[in-house]
């Protein structure tokens, strides 16, 4: 895989050419940025910015004014290769708070090890209805110790309005949900994104996450997608590398929350 060429495709198709990621979301290019505006439970933020921004501070201030006017917290999705240099420092100076760094990892499905099956006693079930979404949300809350109300609502809306662009799965030990994940498919780009892979603490280290990556990868191949993309944490990166994913750059979410 030509890393530079694939990164350029990623930037062009999924960032500069971004599409709304759910019902009620709108993507627009405004001057030097591409941003998404969504309902409060959706993702709001800047997904791409022009490398030749003549006045980055002014552009940042414009986005703060826009999203603050809507009463929305928002994210500026910054990648390690983004220009101008020092953009992260400018965001921090403007009041954004950086969240933990992740690694953008991409795999060409032709070279990935996607044959992994779940360990004994675990079955992977596709999610297609409200009950299944509830299981995914339950796993998310236990795995990440975070409220999943937004995920429950967002996933239900995607399954109701655009089911061909989202795949959700849950891993069950008997009838107990122990891991869950989703995949977002972007038609016409060749890219599918793997998101939300989480395993309940006492079930970690058994190969369940790896099996869910492989399961989603096989679905992507069946649907004609060439590349799988993941924003990988430090914990998931080694697993993904063993499956054949390559680390292309870093990514840091810079979050701005309006004063109450």
TrEMBL record:
Pfam families: Acetyltransf_1 (PF00583). SUPFAM superfamilies: Acyl-CoA N-acyltransferases (Nat). Keywords: Transferase. One of its GO terms (molecular function) is acyltransferase activity, transferring groups other than amino-acyl groups. Residues 122-260 form the N-acetyltransferase domain. The keyword Transferase applies. It comes from the Bacteria. This is Acetyltransferase (GNAT) family protein. It comes from Streptomyces capillispiralis.
């Amino acid at each position: 895989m030509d890393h530079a060429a694939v990164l350029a495709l990623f930037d062009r198709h999924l960032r500069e050419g971004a599409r709304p990621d759910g019902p009620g979301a709108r993507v627009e290019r405004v001057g030097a940025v591409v941003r998404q505006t969504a309902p409060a439970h959706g993702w709001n933020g800047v997904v791409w910015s022009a490398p030749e921004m003549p006045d980055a501070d002014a552009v940042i201030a414009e986005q703060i004014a826009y999203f603050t006017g809507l009463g929305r917290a928002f994210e500026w999705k910054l990648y390690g290769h983004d220009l101008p240099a020092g953009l992260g420092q400018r965001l921090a100076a403007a009041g954004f708070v950086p969240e933990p760094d992740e690694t953008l990892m991409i795999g060409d499905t032709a070279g990935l090890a996607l044959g992994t099956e779940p360990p004994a006693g675990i079955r992977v079930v596709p999610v297609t209805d409200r009950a299944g979404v509830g299981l995914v949300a339950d796993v998310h809350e236990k795995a990440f110790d975070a409220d999943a109300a937004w995920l429950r609502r967002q996933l239900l809306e995607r399954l109701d309005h655009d089911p061909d662009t989202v795949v959700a799965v849950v891993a069950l030990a008997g009838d107990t949900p122990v891991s869950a994940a989703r995949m977002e498919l972007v038609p016409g780009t060749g890219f599918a994104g793997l998101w939300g892979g989480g395993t309940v603490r006492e079930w970690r280290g058994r190969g369940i996450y790896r099996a869910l990556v492989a399961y989603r990868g096989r679905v992507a191949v069946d649907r004609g997608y060439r590349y799988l993309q993941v924003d990988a944490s430090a914990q998931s990166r080694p697993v993904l590398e063993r499956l054949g994913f390559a680390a292309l750059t870093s990514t840091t979410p810079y979050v701005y929350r309006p004063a109450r």
